[in-house]
Design brief:
With 157 residues, the protein is mainly α. The chain has 4 helices and no strands. The protein is 79% helix and 0% strand.
Length: 157
């Protein structure tokens, strides 16, 4: 069972609902522990995430795998949410001991790790080699980051 890949995730609305629930939980945890509640960057992050899912859908459509939309998006959403919770935990737990600078580096390393994770998922979904998936995920990551920076007007996330 552990050898099955993300393409074996059931095509189920329930799985997508669980992934959405995890996304909401990760967003609430992130906004509650790291960002101030009145900070509109949460909405911009959410809009960037949705734009990323649309880009993954476009990749699936171009490659002829639209039938894998729900499992792929649910997998990417769930893994991204878990990594977001890990980033928040790392920042909150390491900040008092290492300081904000080193804790931020750990957070960035986790964020960068999300690219090969999502790349693996999309590569398996479109039945291509892992480096194609990582290239797709890196492109989407850069586009999302550029979107975030343009919408928030900040130099860093």
């Amino acid at each position: 069972m552990l050898r099955k890949g993300p393409e074996h995730v059931p095509d189920s609305a329930l799985v997508l609902v669980y992934a959405l629930g995890l996304l909401v939980l990760a967003t609430l945890i992130s906004s509650g522990l790291v960002q101030s509640p009145d900070d509109d960057s949460i909405l911009v992050s959410l809009a960037g995430s949705i734009a990323g899912y649309v880009l993954y859908w476009i990749v699936l459509a171009i490659t002829g795998f639209t039938h894998r939309l729900v499992p792929t998006v649910a997998s990417i959403m769930a893994c991204g949410s878990i990594l977001t919770i890990m980033m928040v935990a790392a920042f909150v737990l390491l900040n008092p001991f290492l300081g904000a600078s080193l804790a931020s580096i750990v957070v960035w390393l986790i964020l960068i790790w999300s690219v090969p994770v999502k790349g693996h998922i999309i590569a398996r979904a479109i039945e291509r080699h892992w480096y194609i998936g990582i290239s797709i995920a890196m492109t989407i990551f850069v586009l999302q980051y550029m979107f975030y920076l343009s919408m928030t007007g900040s130099d860093s996330a």
